[in-house]
């Protein structure tokens, strides 16, 4: 009988994780299948316990469940996920423990490294203060970046910056309101969008336009559906380097795959599968 893996979220129809992971399972000859499930925040604990009872191999969590998961008594988060305050990967241990991890930060780091971005010492502006933003900012601060978090609700950006600063990581972190984004970008090296602006079906939304950007900037949008968001189109028009959310999706997914199975997945095949699905 096939072992089932899955991703929980709401909404979830946009997710390409099933295509990516099923391609990896197939290539490795593993008798496994990965599905997407719509789960509302208030039903998350029941859904996780149900998956564990039915013998699921593991789970991913996406918007808006990552921060909710950390508050559930059934999950034992690893130290990094606990610091971040969000869980995106669930592992069902043979001991009966349900462990929570966060692979988003590592996925973002590897996506930037793939684009030849030097993180240490870079001035990075991160838009958003949700679960993905927490993971990414903790990772970037650990790697010595100079970070400014901007958010529509300034208090959330400030609170997140304080949480990260309290961890005594090498990088500097501060929080500002989204209204300051234009001015902050003038001296920035990297802009990362962790909000859902521009995600299908609201593809005309963007946090910044070409006149706010510049050719010395790297613009990284973690939204991967559509493949080229409006933000990335605006970035290209300004001469900025662009990084697609596909890279982060693949790298964080590959790390989750390793946590579930102990096996290194075929990363290039996973990326190819995602790109083909998006183009289709």
Automatic annotation (TrEMBL):
Q: Where is the Quinate/shikimate 5-dehydrogenase/glutamyl-tRNA reductase domain?
A: 116-196
Q: Which residues form the SDH C-terminal domain?
A: 245-275
State the name under which the record lists this protein.
Shikimate dehydrogenase (NADP(+))
Query: Which keywords belong to this entry?
Result: Amino-acid biosynthesis, Aromatic amino acid biosynthesis, NADP, Oxidoreductase
What this chain does, per the record?
A: Involved in the biosynthesis of the chorismate, which leads to the biosynthesis of aromatic amino acids. Catalyzes the reversible NADPH linked reduction of 3-dehydroshikimate (DHSA) to yield shikimate (SA).
Q: Which residues form the Shikimate dehydrogenase substrate binding N-terminal domain?
A: 7-90
Q: Which GO terms describe its biological process?
A: amino acid biosynthetic process; aromatic amino acid family biosynthetic process; chorismate biosynthetic process; shikimate metabolic process
Question: Which terms in the Gene Ontology molecular function aspect does this entry carry?
Answer: NADP binding; shikimate 3-dehydrogenase (NADP+) activity
Q: How does it assemble?
A: Homodimer.
Q: In which pathway does it act?
A: Metabolic intermediate biosynthesis; chorismate biosynthesis; chorismate from D-erythrose 4-phosphate and phosphoenolpyruvate: step 4/7
The active site consists of 66
